[in-house]
Every structure is written in structure tokens, then in C-alpha cells.
Amino acid sequence: MMVITDVDQIFMPQPEDLLANLSESYDLVINFLDNLPNYFINATGQDCAFIGALQCANNIIKQIGGKMMFF
Asked: CB-based contacts of 38: which residues, under 8 Å, 6+ apart?
């Protein structure tokens, strides 16, 4: 998981290393999605990071192309 502390100034050291092959990592991805609510159960921040997440995702896939879905 990548934590972005400043949503206005996105810094990604190596975005090409942040992708995983889904067929090879399916169990890890499912485990991550199942546990995602538990990671933020004690979070107190109320800030919106949607634009920062969108910019980060765009930087990751701009070299290879693809589709982004946000939910």
C-alpha cells in the first residue's frame, strides 16, 4: 500500500514497479481487498484525496495504457 501524505504534491519514486500481474497475485489482491476496511478503522482524517489518487493512478498506467475504475 502506498501512503500519500501531501495530496497536492504527489511523489512516486518508481511508478512502474507498483503494478502486479493479477493472475500471479490474485490471492494477495483478494486478501488486501477483504482487509482494506480494517486498515483504516481508526482513521480520523476527513480530507478528500480523490484527485491525488487519480493523478497517482494516471502516472502508473500512462506508460502501458489501460482503464481506471474508481469506486
From this structure: none
